[in-house]
Amino acid sequence: MRTMGLDVGTKTIGVAISDELGITGQSLRTLRRSSLRSDLAELRELIQEHAVSRIIVGLPLNMDGSEGPMAAGCREFGRALATASDVPVEYWDERLSTVAAECVLLEGDVSRRRRREVVDSVAAAIILQGWLDARSIERGRDPEGEDE
Description:
It is built from 4 helices and 5 strands. The chain is of the alpha/beta class. The chain is globular and about 40 Å long.
């Protein structure tokens, strides 16, 4: 079973997926948002296609750690997705994930046009990888591959 990571924005949703062992998160795609109903339907298809057992939604906290309107919107979307898909949803601090994604893409010399197309799915992969690494540490495994 796999874990799905989401970077939920107002215009797009970046989607990432873990490998079956839950070690790495990879960028999957970016969905263009249209309506809640169609967004949830598209995500349900991906959940079934990839046998997703858990969803991690990036939570855009303010720099002081508080939750603002964007975080409230992500929580609302997460609740709707959990109900629509019957898959548990967790939230992960996504502060600066899009900035980190832009840096990764710039370092990879990705064109400006291509960066716009993939930045949200790369941000979703960064969110997912952060959650996977934290979970690995909680289980007593070094995310770099060495047991502690």
